[in-house]
Every structure is written in structure tokens, then in C-alpha cells.
Amino acid sequence: GAGVSQSPSNKVTEKGKDVELRCDPISGHTALYWYRQSLGQGLEFLIYFQGNSAPDKSGLPSDRFSAERTGGSVSTLTIQRTQQEDSAVYLCASSLEGGGNIQYFGAGTRLSVL
Amino acid sequence: QKEVEQDPGPLSVPEGAIVSLNCTYSNSAFQYFMWYRQYSRKGPELLMYTYSSGNKEDGRFTAQVDKSSKYISLFIRDSQPSDSATYLCAMKVTGGGNKLTFGTGTQLKVEL
């Protein structure tokens, strides 16, 4: 596609449920990033994938968060046993090479945990 | 203290004004500096990026980096209502991974 695509655009879930968020990067981009944007907090790095290298998971806030990238393209961010503090906009970005200087963002998934 | 500080605003200016947006940072290893614009319920879009110190101009936008003061700025000339958005500064170190560290964003409103 022309840009980074994320689905769903909105997700409402109950506390304790698991959720899966999907990101389809720009075709040909080898690097993929997940960020979280909370009100008044700015964007917080979560995880980074580059090609077949081991992902940089240094930003994941707890072991309830995990992500995978299948076939070097689509990525799924999974949050298990959701908590109210997980409510945020989850943004995905991709870049053409590992340098990551120019990251192109999707519109995000707005997650609300009730 | 956050690595990148940015005044959240909101900042309200009349159409045609010159807008100055700023960020300060504490990590002297930052070498790449970016400004993103984010409209409501949209993803951030890259406006400007610079490497190390200096100025860069693109149309109505000018980015400045002063590494000695750990201070970056974005100037918008002849501001338009369509410039109303949240402006995020972002920074990255060289060779230290690929994550961007963002400021919290400044909300700008340009009024008719």
C-alpha cells in the first residue's frame, strides 16, 4: 500500500482480556517500530524489528506485551490481560533501512480498556 | 527528568505570524533531530530532519539545532490555519539503536 496501515483503528476491550493490534508497513521497508502515545506523555518506544535480526524489545513495559513480525512484513502487537493503564494510541512506523532516521507512521490504533 | 522536554502549549497565534517551537534535551549523544507534525487522530508525519548542529530550511519551515545548548527549534513563517496541529520533536543517537526519543508535543492553533 501507499502508507503504513494499522488495524483496527479503534479497539474497546474489558480489563483482563487479550488484544492484538496489526501493522502492515510500507512495501519494501525493512524496519518496523511500535510506539505508544499516551495523553500528555508523547510517543514512547516499544519495540523495533530490522530484517532477520533479533528485535530490540527494550521499550516493552511488561511481559504482558509482545510482538512478532512474520515474513519480514506484517507485525502484530499483543497485549495480554489488559489493564486500564494500557489505554493509549499504539502507533506503528516503518523505514526503508535500519538507520531509522526517517520513520513513516500509520494512523494508530486507539485502545480503550474499560 | 525526561530526556527531551517540550512545552505542551497550547500555543495560539494569528494567521501570518511567525511561530517558534522549541525542545531542550539532556543526552549529548543525540545526533539526529526531527520535527513531526500530527493532526488530530492521525499519525505523525515528518516535517524536517537535521544531522548535528546547524540550520535547515524548507519552504516556510526552518529547523535549527544548537548542540552546545542542547536546544532545537522549528520556525514557521506566514503561519496558516492548516498549520494547526501538534508538533513533536524527536531525536536519535548514532549507532545506539534505532528508537526515536520524542518530546511530548506542542499543540499549535493558528487563528483567522
Alpha carbon gyration radius of chain B:
14 Å
Give me the Rg of chain A, rounded: 13 Å
Biggest sheet architecture of chain A = 6 strands, mixed
Q: Overall 3D geometry of chain A?
A: globular
Describe the fold and architecture.
The complex is a heterodimer of chains A (114) and B (112). Chain A has 114 residues and is an all-beta fold. Chain A contains no helices and 10 strands. Chain A has strands at 5-7, 10-13, 19-24, 31-38, 42-50, 65-69, 75-79, 88-95, 104-105, 109-113. In chain A, the strands form 2 sheets. In chain A, strands 2, 4, 5, 8, 9 and 10 form a 6-stranded mixed beta sheet that branches. In chain A, strands 1-3-7-6 form a 4-stranded antiparallel beta sheet, with no helix packed on it. Chain B is mostly beta strands and 112 residues long. Chain B has strands at 4-5, 11-14, 19-25, 30-38, 45-51, 54-58, 61-66, 71-76, 85-93, 101-102, 106-111. The radius of gyration of chain B is 14 Å and the shape is globular. Classes of the chains: A mainly beta (114), B mainly beta (112). Chain A binds chain B through residues 4, 31, 33, 35, 40-45, 48, 50, 56, 58-59, 91, 93, 95, 98-108, 110, and chain B through 4, 6, 8, 32, 34, 36, 41-46, 49, 88, 90, 92, 97-105.
Which structural traits does this protein have?
heterodimer, A: 114 residues, mainly beta, six-stranded mixed β-sheet, four-stranded antiparallel β-sheet, 10 strands, 0% helix, globular, B: 112 residues
Produce the secondary structure layout.
The complex is a heterodimer of chains A (114) and B (112).
Chain A: E1 5-7, E2 10-13, E3 19-24, E4 31-38, E5 42-50, E6 65-69, E7 75-79, E8 88-95, E9 104-105, E10 109-113
Parallel strand pairs in A: 2-10
Antiparallel strand pairs in A: 1-3, 3-7, 4-5, 4-8, 6-7, 8-9, 8-10
Chain B: E1 4-5, E2 11-14, E3 19-25, E4 30-38, E5 45-51, E6 54-58, E7 61-66, E8 71-76, E9 85-93, E10 101-102, E11 106-111
Parallel strand pairs in B: 2-11
Antiparallel strand pairs in B: 1-3, 3-8, 4-5, 4-9, 6-7, 7-8, 9-10, 9-11
